[in-house]
Amino acid sequence: MKNEIEIKLLVNQTFANFFNQKINNYQILQCHQHQLDNCYYDTHDHLFSQLRSGLRVRKENQQFIMTLKTAGSTTGGLHIRPEYNVHLATAEPDLALLQQFAELQLPRPLSVLQTELQPIFRTDFTRHSWLLELENGSKIEVALDQGIISAKQQQIEIKEIEFELQQGCINDLLTFIQHLPLIDGIRLSAISKAERGYLLAGIGEKRTFNFTTQWQHLCKHIPRDFTFITSLFEYEQQLSEYTANLVPVDFINKPQETQQLLNAFYQLYQLDLQQLSLLDSIATQNNFETINQLFESNQRLYSNLQQLIKYYQLEQNNVLVIQRLQAIFHQARYVIRNINWLKLLHQS
């Protein structure tokens, strides 16, 4: 068992092409391109989905590897998950091979689960990967994945870049991404390929997010200490993920919902600025620059949102306002800002 520590970026084709060129500027230890064909399995009652886990069999270079990824933690696109890998002789999953991991606890015996397994969905994609070595000796695997997720005769696109820490500390990973030559058309994502596959297969429920209720809970029940800063960031990630996945045309006749969403971001960035001002007074040598950069980026976001609210009051164009909100989350500087948040949380 190992802990997988990675950052995931959803990208467009323009950024994928741009990144393919820029990655050659780094110290590359290895470079590979493979076709990865994956089938995900679950029980008749979707036990692995309920456990926020994913069981897959991957075919790579005529070899088969079974992987069980269990529930870990996800914060702002930073994923930390335990995973168990075993080699297979064929493409058929064999849960008995997981018996070697004594720490793995499942609610049913492996022998029972084995009889209940059935294929649920597939992810088939080309992976272009690079193993990079940083100046301090840390190693990061960068993978550009492009392909499809398929289930029940439906398909959705995969186009993402994963940055996985192979050697070093989380701050090395965050600093590396922060200094990449990023351009617009990217977004940090907390949703895995497996979660997208389950949704396509009609299993589980799409993430729901009542931002009004969450905000009230946050303001009333979370103590105003560093825990509050962490909760603010997690709330923003949920709010931005929710907004990024909206269908703008659905808001043509929803002026109240549009205004509520604008107000949610306005309240958030206003409170962010207040909390960062307080943090500035207790900044350390390690996080002083990070806090200053966050304060500047939040001021810019707050100003942009004020302008968007004024525009909406004049034009009442719900669809365009939702589109402009979504565009914010696909800006390179928004991604860098969120990386700064993650650095602050891990430095403190």
From TrEMBL:
It holds the Pfam family CYTH. Gene3D superfamilies: Hypothetical Protein Pfu-838710-001. CDD domains: CYTH-like_Pase_CHAD (cd07756). One of its GO terms (molecular function) is metal ion binding. It comes from the Bacteria. This is Uncharacterized protein.
